[in-house]
Amino acid sequence: MTFEEIKNLDEQYVMHSYGRFPVALDRGEGATIWDVNGREYIDFTAGIGVTSLGHGDRGWLEAVTGQAARLAHISNLFYTEPYAKVAQALCTRSGMANVMFGNSGAEANEAMIKLARKWSFDKYGKGRGTVITLHNSFHGRTITTLAATGQDKFHNYFFPFTEGFRYADANDIGSVEAVAGHDVCAVMMELVQGEGGVLPLDREFVRKVADLCAKRDWLLLIDEVQTGVGRTGTLFAFQQYDIQPDVVSFAKGIANGLPFGGVMAGEKCRDVFTPGTHGTTFGGNPVAAAAACHVLDRLDESFLAGVREKGDYLRTRIEAMDLPCLGKTRGLGLMIGIEVKEGWTNRDLAARLIDNGLLILTAGPGLRMLPPLVITKEEMDRGLAIMEETLS
Ligand SMILES: *Cc1c(COP(=O)(O)O)cnc(C)c1O
């Protein structure tokens, strides 16, 4: 089908809930993608931080097809090997005790909130279910995770929202203390706020929140849906923040494109979910689990060191270009935000870059890059050259 045919079909039959760019993508290899007209693009998006091993990875493909041929799905009422193995890999490499699987980031965060509330209910009884989150955060699109998201623009249309959330300012411990109360059971945050604009939290602030949680017997909930699974140059971002969270959610990059996610709990709350208290049909699906096992196998120490180096390289090169519309860069590893200067809009710059062959994302008022973690130097240089040509 041609681009026009695909677009017309889509416009007629698909709900218009996304502002799309005018490109129909067809196939990819590593961090290079081709559209239906055979035109080439460099991918600085990885499907919003999902395809960490890049497009068309052979090892991943074998893990997925091998498992699909053996057993594509069986319910959570039975054991499967990939399920147990991916759970072990996640826990041993993060210092967490155990895990529960789901299918997406919002669902993982929903589980994290349920776990925190039940933990508190079991210990203290009713009336202690409030979760403090941060302004500018993003935690998902379900009614509850929208309520958890600390941005007013998401608190619209879908009333009534789930109650029991209060918002504090990032990097301001006084603001967290100001919304504290006897009804609070947890603090939930991203360590690098992703959708909010790629804003890394200060280490000092995170440390103080962890101390406050310990002092008040609140759970520390870390949303690693975007920062997790190697994106920031360590397996999880919290490993660079000198904290051990009580619960960690993950999704996006875990299975290189298959829907997969979940929550890991620390020792203190490993037994909160008991039979019948939480569940899902697809969560832990063996094909997604086999894919995740393969992703985790590949993300060894030298791979992760490569992520940190590539991130430094991209940021140094972009700042050195000194483009008129772009300001400073920020981020961790291959999660990079670029300030857009006044007089330009990120959406317009992204559209121009995409038009010239570089797929890129926006976040907050800036641009955002989440390339496949396997991106090569040559692909980075091609992407940077497109940036320089387009935006000079
Ligand atoms: C993307 C994202 C989510 C939501 O994940 P979905 O898979 O889209 O439901 C939640 N939290 C953070 C930090 C995210 O980046």
Concise description?
The chain has 392 residues and is an alpha/beta fold. It has 12 helices and 17 strands.
Briefly, what CATH class of the largest domain? Alpha Beta
Which architecture of the largest domain would the CATH scheme give at its second level? 3-Layer(aba) Sandwich
Q: For the residues shown, what is the average pLDDT?
A: 98
At the fold tier of CATH, the topology name of the largest domain is Aspartate Aminotransferase, domain 2
Globally, the shape reads globular
Poorly predicted parts: none
Instruction: Name every ligand kind in the structure.
Output: pyridoxal-5'-phosphate
Most strands sheet: 7 strands, mixed
Number of domains: 2
Helix content: 25-40%
Q: Which class do the helix and strand fractions yield?
A: alpha/beta
Q: Taking strands numbered 1, 2, ... along the chain, how are they ordered across the largest sheet?
A: 4-12-11-10-7-5-6
The count of helical stretches stands at 12
Order of helices and strands: HEEEHHHEHEHEHEEEHEEEHHEEHEEEH
Rg on CA atoms, Å: 21 Å
What percentage of amino acids are in beta strands? Answer: 15-25%
Q: List how many beta strands DSSP finds.
A: 17
The CATH superfamily of the largest domain is: Type I PLP-dependent aspartate aminotransferase-like (Major domain)
